[in-house]
Design a protein that fits this description.
Keywords: Hydrolase. This is Ribosome biogenesis GTPase. It comes from Pedobacter africanus. With 350 residues, the chain is of the alpha/beta class. It has 3 domains: 83 residues, Beta Barrel (OB fold (Dihydrolipoamide Acetyltransferase, E2P)), CATH 2.40.50; 159 residues, Rossmann fold (3-Layer(aba) Sandwich); 77 residues, Ribonucleotide Reductase Protein R1, domain 1 (Orthogonal Bundle), CATH 1.10.40.50. The protein has 10 helices and 13 strands. The chain has a 6-stranded mixed β-sheet with strand order 10-9-8-11-13-12. A 5-stranded mixed barrel has the order 1-2-3-5-4. Strands 6-7 form a two-stranded antiparallel sheet. The termini are far apart.
């Protein structure tokens, strides 16, 4: 028997279940997604579940169950089930689907904290950290930066300077699995019943970190290439694990590119500390590019706002606007298609 409160089940989720037509059936949480089925943790144990046709063909792909989803299912056989409903999501981490402009992919949902994992070697990349952080803040998830492999030789002053504009946005931990004491702040930041997702590129040590936090091998690991300094994709799927005496951890495959799936540029303004300067701009609709009287540009020229952070802000804002415009156009086409369909039905009735 599993105690689902350890996995995040709450009175709020119970109330959401009461709104479902299937409230009389069992519920559980998706711990992993396979090609043809879903692994669901329930009070009765672990089940392999499939989707009903209505869910499989009646929803866009990003609304299909992902790791962390709470679902309602009808059991059959001893360890199998059929998912009939998905409880409303909160705090869902998305990314723009590879090769698309506006399609998005759900990585994990019902997430309380997101650990952005970067290693203090050739993988260290501030711009990638910013990308993860924007998407995390978009869903009101608490971001935490974990810098691994701190036992390696690195320039701490230079690292701190490059992260100066992010220090007030999230906690930053320097860790190494070879010194257990460095992992204590990470462990303490995960409370029982909370869910934390680990994101980052390949080779930064996400799986090794989770293994160290759990005190046992729960995910396979592989060595980083000595030639390129890059890791291989050890994790091949998003998978959830319960940490003894603590919360739920979700490991994710490494990603080299993390496309933004946000249409809210205000998140960027706040994250890069642009909002305080923007309030003093001459024009209310200032783009902070080349307008006269722009307080943001003045702050950059006077060294109050780092040039690298400002350039990153502009780049991510353009990407956010592009996604927003593409998403709007897609919805507009969808509405037009629905209108044509309804008109066709009306003509047919006549």
């Amino acid at each position: 028997m599993n105690n689902l409160s350890l996995y995040g089940w709450s009175n709020k989720l119970f109330q959401l279940k009461q709104n479902s037509s299937y409230q009389h059936l069992y519920h559980g949480r998706v711990s992993a997604v396979n090609k043809t089925n879903y692994e669901v943790i329930s009070e009765q144990g672990l089940l392999l579940c499939e989707l009903t046709g209505n869910l499989l063909y009646g929803r866009p792909s990003f609304e299909l169950p992902c790791t962390g989803d709470w679902v309602i299912f009808q059991p059959f056989d001893e360890d199998k089930g059929l998912i009939v409903d998905i409880l409303p999501r909160v705090h869902t981490l998305y990314r723009r689907k590879s090769g698309t402009v506006s399609d998005k992919q759900a990585i994990a949902t019902h997430v309380d904290k997101a650990f952005i994992v970067q290693s203090l070697d050739a993988n260290f990349n501030v711009r990638r950290i910013e990308r993860f952080m924007v998407q995390i803040l978009e869903e009101s998830i608490q971001p935490i930066l974990i810098l691994t492999k701190s036992d390696l030789e690195f320039n701490r002053r230079k690292v701190n300077q490059s992260l100066a504009h992010l220090y007030f946005q999230m906690p930053i931990f320097f860790t190494t699995i070879h010194i257990p004491e460095t992992l204590l702040p990470v462990r303490k930041s995960i409370a029982q019943g909370q869910t934390a997702v680990f994101v980052g590129s390949s080779g930064v040590g996400k799986s090794s970190l989770i293994n160290a936090l759990c005190g046992r091998t729960v995910f396979a690991t592989s060595k980083t290439s000595s030639a390129s300094g890059k890791g291989r994709h050890t994790s091949t799927r998003r998978e959830m694990i319960l940490m003894n005496g603590s919360g739920v951890l979700i490991d994710t495959p490494g990603v080299r590119e993390f496309g933004l799936a946000t249409d809210d540029s205000d998140v960027l303004t706040a994250m890069f500390d642009v909002s305080d300067f923007a309030a003093s701009c001459r024009f209310a609709d200032c783009r902070h590019v080349d307008e006269p009287g722009c307080a943001v540009i003045t702050a950059v020229n006077n060294g109050y706002l780092a040039t690298e952070a400002y350039n990153s802000y502009l780049k991510l804002r353009r990407e956010s606007w592009h996604f927003s415009a593409s998403e709007h156009e897609k919805r507009k086409r969808g509405r037009s298609f629905s209108k044509i369909t309804e008109e066709a039905k009306w003509v047919k009735k006549r």
